[in-house]
Structures are given as C-alpha cells and as structure tokens.
C-alpha cells in the first residue's frame, strides 16, 4: 500500500493535483458500488452464493480500480481508497464476498509490487477482517446506518494504527503527511458506499417481499399487457394451467389456454377494463373445473395511460360447495322449522325471555335494550309503548299489554308496522313444554311491494277505464257497466234509461277554432253532463269522438228527460261561441231510450239502438233538441234542447 514518503517540492500545484486524484478515486469507488446496487437485482434471481460471489468480485474490482487511481507520493509508495470496498464486502457479503474481494485486491497488489507491498497486503487483510467482524456483529439482524458509521470509524482506526505501526509506513511518515485526509476519505467512502448498499438491501428486501408475496400467494395472480397477454404469473397460475415455469406462460393469452368461447368472454371483459379504466371486481369465472372469483384493475403509467391490467383470482370452489351445502341445509332446516327466519325468541310459561338471537333484538331497534334474557314480555311491551315503536297501540296501554300477555302462549301470526314504516311478521308457536317460540321476519319489502302492486293495479284500472281527455268513463268501462246495470234492472224489473248525446257541428267547430279549442269544448260538455246527474249509480261516458252516453238505472223516460233538459240548460249557460253553427253557439242533440224488464232481459242492446235512432232523428229534425224513443220504435217526446 504505502512506502516511504518525502515532501515534494512543488508547492500548492502538487497538493491540488493530489486532492483532484483523491476526488477521482472517491468517485470511482462510489460509482462502482452504485453500479452494483443498480445491477444486483439481476443476481437475485440466482442463488445467494452466486450473488455473494458477484458482490465480492465487484468489490475487488472497485479496490483494484482504486489502486490504479492511487496517488503516488514517492516512487513505489501509493495512497488510495482500496480499503472501503473490502470492508463493505466483508460486512454486507460475508466470508464468501470478502474472500473474493480480498483475493482480487491482494493478487493485484502483489502484481503491482513496490516497497510497501507487504504492508499493503497486511492492511488489505486487516480491512477485510474488520468487515467480517462487522458481519458477525449484524448477522442476526439487518444492518443500519449506525452500523455503517461504526464500520467507518473502525476502518479509520485500523488505518491510523497501520500507518503508526507498520515499518515502511512509519519510515515514510505517511501518518504525518497524509494520514488524516486519507483516513477521512476512506471513512467517507465507506459511509457513502455503505448508505448505497443499505438502500440497496432495503429495496431488495422490499422487492423480495413483494416477489415472494406475489409468487407464493394462495390466490392466482397475474399481469397482462394491453392485448391480454401474460407478462408475469405466480406459482398458483402455472399449477392451474399445468406449466413448469412462469416463463412458459409469458406471452400466452387465454386463447392459448382455454376454450375459444370462454377465452373470448374473458378477453371482452379485460378489454373493457383496459378501454374504460374501470376495475372489474369479483367477477365469477369457471376454469378447469374450478369456481374462481376474479378482480382485474387497470395499470397506468406516469402519464395516466392504461398499459395493461393486474388480476387476482381467488379459488372459491370449496366455498361455493360449502355455500351450496349450506343452502341445502338451510332449506331443509327451513322446512323442518316451519319457515323460521331472521329473529328467534323463546319465552317460558310465565312470559320471561329465556333465549333470543341478535336478529330478534335488531328487528326492534327502539326496544332492543329491553329484549334481554330474563326480561318479562310485559316490560318489553311497555318499552314498545313508551318509545312508540309500533303503530296502532291503543290509548289503554295496560289493557293492550294484558291482552298481549294472555295471547302469548298461543299459535298465532301477526304483522306489525314500526314507527319508521318498516313491517315485521311475528309468528308465535307453542312448544310441548309450554314455551312460546316467536319467529320475527322483516317483511318490509314484501309489504311495500304489495302496496305498490295494489296502487299500480288501481292506477292501471283507472287508466283503463278513464278517458284521458275528459276524465270520465271510457267506452270499454261503459260497456262493462252497461251489461252489469241492465242485468240488475232486468232482475229488479225496474226501468232503465239511456241518453245519447252528440255535439252539433263539432267538425266545423274543430275546423274553425282548432283542435285544442275542440278538446276544451269536449271538457266543458263532459263537465255539464256530470253536473246533470247526481246519483252514484248514474254513469256518464265518452262514447266516441264528440258523442257521449249517460245511463240512468231505475229511471223512467220522464226522469231521463229531466236530466237531458238540465244538461241542455247548463250547456246553453256556457254560451260557447260557434260561428259554424246555425245557432251561433255550441249545442247538442240528445236521444233518449227507456226500457223495462222484458226488453232488458232479452235484448239489452236494443236500448242502445233506440237511443242512437232517437239521436239521429233529433239531428235530422234540426239539431239542438231532445228526442225520446222506446224500444218498440215509438217517439215519446221531442223538444228543443235550447
């Protein structure tokens, strides 16, 4: 390493040159260790022994490079930073790395020769030994920055001791001339390179954990590119598809592994994830006879572009089988226990609660704290009344509680509504030992569905039976009511009258004033008709475009005429202008027919025919008038509607 040193005459230029060379030497050592840190990941794929050998060779090469860049103070006497890589090789690489590093450094130092060769070999061994001691010190734990600092101090101390004791170095006054900066630079190189190695170990450990977790995960893990080709897979994946190594699956796609229909389905789903950037969570897949639950998420680069996807697939075959068995068992249990559902409670013969599950307590949130083992049914019901948990509790709370206690030990089914609108079904069954078992189910959804269905049915019925424009009964509903009411009048042998109403010159009204005005006119006419009848049994219906019909059960022809006259007066009072009519206002022609039991029993439609004939006669006789016919064809009355 070092020989005798004498102070060269040359002044500051020589000193500056020395420090420049020292800087270059330090940079080289740090660069060599940094390059190892960068490429060491490649060696982790091999065995640990191979990695240590490689590290030892790199450390030895760094030491040799430092020797080549050594600063010459006297012929045959050089100073360099060869000791830092050697110490670090011993500390971080152990005996194998230390042996290779020291062997290379010693061999090269021996090859170089020089007056201080023996001392240099001794110090190389000394520095390597310090690293090995440090390796033993940290063997059972991971090294830290403090360990690197202590190694640096130990190396510095060893160098100072060497320069103070080895004959050649003492004779050359190395310690006095350059000992301090050389020691500090070696210590600095050790700290810097040690920090790099610490971070490398940390990253290697983290990567090893991730790789191990990925490789040994009990799930099926894989990464695919944008074309759904495998980039990497874990061990479970190669076992699933019966490959020997992950490399054999790299570059393949599902089309190489599965039937084409299944591969196309999976490819479509994965391309949706890649195109939309939206993860696919818990998608059920059936592959190789296994039930799998797959989640796939898009992978993005720093610019946010999707570059592939990562998938995790869990084998749920056993869970699916267990769930199937559980469902089967549950079905059997449900049949065996007469429809038992969420909440279960058991009361003894005196009304005390001896067992309940959480579902039973949760079914009644306001009285939950009162529903505990040992509580009496009376106290529970009193809490229900105090909190208003149930609707329909009478004012006589004590009487209600007594009645509930009395009926507890009996078989019964009841439905109760809670304060928040939820519904509960309570089925109570009496056991042979006198205990009452209550089964509580949440039937809110069922009740809401029933209510919604009933409302929908009512709305549909109303829509089906109602004319959308006028709001009165439509032709379909009229036909049903006509058949029903005429049959009733026939049984009772009572008169049944029918009015058929037609708006005069309505086409001309539409042509003159437009369809919106025509619609409004129809609404006014229908309102006048509804106001002209008063009994619930009387029905007014829209029979056609501008034609209306009114049937009047238990009404004679005279009564029907009164209704028709009331309508005509109301319409006249509206005084709706109609320039296309000879009357200069909207008028109506009305035909009346009335029949009794015999006609209604044999041919009730004859009533419609006669009313229509009467309406026709009223229109041909000048419109704006009322004409009554009987089923025999006789004209009973005629008068102007206005």
Give a description of the structure.
The chain is 55% helix and 18% strand. The protein has 21 helices and 18 strands. It has 642 residues and is of the alpha+beta class. The strands form 4 sheets. The chain has a 6-stranded mixed beta sheet, with helices on both faces. A 5-stranded antiparallel beta sheet has the order 4-3-7-6-5, sandwiched between helices. It has helices at 12-43, 48-68, 83-112, 117-137, 145-165, 167-171, 174-216, 235-240, 246-249, 260-276, 317-336, 358-362, 377-387, 397-406, 444-465, 475-492, 506-513, 515-532, 557-574, 597-602, 605-620, and strands at residues 71-74, 77-79, 220-225, 230-233, 280-287, 290-300, 306-315, 343-347, 353-356, 412-417, 423-430, 436-442, 496-503, 539-542, 547-553, 588-595, 625-629, 635-640.
| Overall outline | elongated
Output mean pLDDT: 80
Report strand order across the widest sheet. 14-15-13-16-17-18
Structural class: alpha+beta
Distance between the termini: 137 Å
Q: Radius of gyration, rounded? A: 52 Å
Beta-strand residue percentage: 15-25%
Tell me how many strands there are: 18
Helix content: 40-55%
Low-confidence stretches: 1-12, 336-340, 633-638
| Helix segment tally | 21
> Describe the biggest sheet?
6 strands, mixed
């Amino acid at each position: 390493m070092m020989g005798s040193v004498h102070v060269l005459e040359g002044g500051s230029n020589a000193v500056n040159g020395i420090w420049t060379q020292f800087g270059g030497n330090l940079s080289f050592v740090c660069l060599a260790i940094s390059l190892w840190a960068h490429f060491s990941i490649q060696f982790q794929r091999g065995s640990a022994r191979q990695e240590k050998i490689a590290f030892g060779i790199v450390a030895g090469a760094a030491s040799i490079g430092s020797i080549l860049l050594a600063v010459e103070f006297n012929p045959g006497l050089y100073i360099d930073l060869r000791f830092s890589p050697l110490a670090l090789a011993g500390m971080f690489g152990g005996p194998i790395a230390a042996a290779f590093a020291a062997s290379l450094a010693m061999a090269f130092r021996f090859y170089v020769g020089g007056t201080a060769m023996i001392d240099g070999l001794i110090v190389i061994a000394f520095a390597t030994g310090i690293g090995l001691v440090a390796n033993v010190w940290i063997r059972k734990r991971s090294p830290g920055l403090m360990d690197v600092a202590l190694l640096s101090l130990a190396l510095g101390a060893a160098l100072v001791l060497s320069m103070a004791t080895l004959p050649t170095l003492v004779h050359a006054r190395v310690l006095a001339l350059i000992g301090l900066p050389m020691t500090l630079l070696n210590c600095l190189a050790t700290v810097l390179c040690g920090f790099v190695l610490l971070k490398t170990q940390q990253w290697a450990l983290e990567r090893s954990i991730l790789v191990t977790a990925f490789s040994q995960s009990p799930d099926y893990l894989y990464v695919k590119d944008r074309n759904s080709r495998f980039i990497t897979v874990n061990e479970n994946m190669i076992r699933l598809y019966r490959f020997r190594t992950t490399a054999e699956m790299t570059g393949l796609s599902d089309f190489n592994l599965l039937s084409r229909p299944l591969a196309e389905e999976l490819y479509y789903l994965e391309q949706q994830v890649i195109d939309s950037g939206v993860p696919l969570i818990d998608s059920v897949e059936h592959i190789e006879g296994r039930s799998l639950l797959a989640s796939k998420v898009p992978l993005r680069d720093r610019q946010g572009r999707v570059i592939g996807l990562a998938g995790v697939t869990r084998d749920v075959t056993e869970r699916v089988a267990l769930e199937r068995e559980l469902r089967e068992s549950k079905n059997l249990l449900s049949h065996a226990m007469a429809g038992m559902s969420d909440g279960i409670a058991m009361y003894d013969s005196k009304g005390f609660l001896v067992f309940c599950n959480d579902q039973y307590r949760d079914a009644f949130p306001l009285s939950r704290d009162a529903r505990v083992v040992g509580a009496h049914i009376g106290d529970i019901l009193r809490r229900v009344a105090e909190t208003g948990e149930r609707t329909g509790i009478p004012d006589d709370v004590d009487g209600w509680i007594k009645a509930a206690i009395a009926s507890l030990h009996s078989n019964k089914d009841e439905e109760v509504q809670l304060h928040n609108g939820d519904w509960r079904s309570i089925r109570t069954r009496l056991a042979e030992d006198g205990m009452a078992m209550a089964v509580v189910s949440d039937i809110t959804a069922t009740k809401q569905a029933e209510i919604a269905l009933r409302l929908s049915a009512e709305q549909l019925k109303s829509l089906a039976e109602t004319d959308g424009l006028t709001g009165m009964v439509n032709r379909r509903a009229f036909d049903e009511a006509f058949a029903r009411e005429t049959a009733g009048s026939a049984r009772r042998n009572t008169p049944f009258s029918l009015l058929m109403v037609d708006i005069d010159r309505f086409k001309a009204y539409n042509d003159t004033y437009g369809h919106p005005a025509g619609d409004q006119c129809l609404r006014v006419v229908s309102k006048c008709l509804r106001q002209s009848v008063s009994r619930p049994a009387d029905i007014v219906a829209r029979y056609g475009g501008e034609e209306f019909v009114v049937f009047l059960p238990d009404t004679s022809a005279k009564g029907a005429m009164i209704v028709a006259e009331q309508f005509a007066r109301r319409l006249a009072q509206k005084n709706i202008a109609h320039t296309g009519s000879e009357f200069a206002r909207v008028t109506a022609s009305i035909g009346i027919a009335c029949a009794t039991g015999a006609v209604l029993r044999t041919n009730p439609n004859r009533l419609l025919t006669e009313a229509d004939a009467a309406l026709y006669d009223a229109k041909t006789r000048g419109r704006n008038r009322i004409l009554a016919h009987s089923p025999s064809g006789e004209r009973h009355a005629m008068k102007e509607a206005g």
